[in-house]
Amino acid sequence: MASTPLLASSLPLAAAPMAGGPSTVALAGAVAGAGAFPFLAGGYRPVEALAEQISQARRLGADFGVNLFVPSRAPVDGAALQAYARELAPEAQAYGLDLSVQPGHDDDGWQAKLDLLVSDPVPVVSFTFGLPEDDVVRRLRAAGTTVLVTVTTAREAAAAAEAGADGLVVQGPRAGGHSATFDPSRTIGGQATADVVQEVRGATALPVIGTGGVGGGEDVRAILAAGAQMVAVGTLLLRADEAGTPETYRRALVDPAFTRTIVTRAFSGRPARSLRNGFAQRHPHAPSAYPAVNRLTLPLRAAAARAGDMQRISLWAGTGWRGARDESAADAVARLAAAL
């Protein structure tokens, strides 16, 4: 284990970035106040809104990180995408929608967000879904920012080290939400995060933050024992008072009708772990086409959320989702800290 801490916090714990609403400045503040390291989620957020969140986070008086999605460079099979749109037509008709494939490429405001983080640096920036260009890493490090790359295999870890990353976020396949794999067409298994951390530690000397499938203190101890400096938790904070998790999503997390998680491309075109609901089960063969599929299903997911329909929204959750509670984020952190 590296002797110098990778992130500034009194506990070896971090709040993973959760895009789409759950990660809020209030959550970051509660986590930081409890001694863990907070991340803001830059994914899906307009650059102006991200800038405002960063401004608010600076008032917390603690270091924090910002996570960005690396844009996909993979070509999209247009015919497969159109076929999927036709497959989803009956789902859309339930809400009077006509889903259509959106033209153009969506890079989630990549360049504008990079320019913001270089001109107005934050302590830490992490990347998910791939490697940023080498000059991106250099520019951020030159601005005084610690750069982390999220990886899922030893091979990805070696590539991140070669690109100049300061450290790694090692995501195990039991993590909730999108897999950070560089290759979204590959099959995501069920390996324990501690095992992936050990493999990565054998491939590079970079310091590691382990994440994925954490249901309680026992999982944290296992990941740290495998060689991680810190453990990041996401799903465990979805029900926190300060999280921006939508109400329908919160209800699903405690609904006994949901008994397991599965990895699905149905909602976004990228493998992601979700509670097994009707939509995920009905569409097991969605094309590997992120973010095109994500844009295609967005109107349906939004309508379903407004209607309280848990069977047609993405219910991202790691395998430890039963460990999430209705409580303050500070209490959630304290529970994990007590088990160390």
Automatic annotation (TrEMBL):
**Annotated catalysed reactions:** 3 propionate 3-nitronate + 3 O2 + H2O = 3 3-oxopropanoate + 2 nitrate + nitrite + H2O2 + 3 H(+)
InterPro entries for this protein:
Aldolase_TIM (IPR013785), Dihydroorotate_DH_CS (IPR001295), NMO (IPR004136)
- CDD domains (alphabetical): NPD_like (cd04730)
| Necessary cofactors | FMN
- One family name in Pfam for this protein: NMO
| Alphabetical keyword list | Detoxification, Flavoprotein, FMN, Monooxygenase, Oxidoreductase
Q: Which GO terms describe its biological process?
A: 'de novo' pyrimidine nucleobase biosynthetic process; response to toxic substance
Is Oxidoreductase there in the keyword field? yes
Q: Which SUPFAM superfamilies match?
A: Inosine monophosphate dehydrogenase (IMPDH)
Q: Name one GO molecular function term.
A: nitronate monooxygenase activity
Q: Which family does it belong to?
A: Belongs to the nitronate monooxygenase family. NMO class I subfamily.
Give the PANTHER family listed for this entry: NITRONATE MONOOXYGENASE-RELATED (PTHR42747)
State what protein this is by name: Propionate 3-nitronate monooxygenase
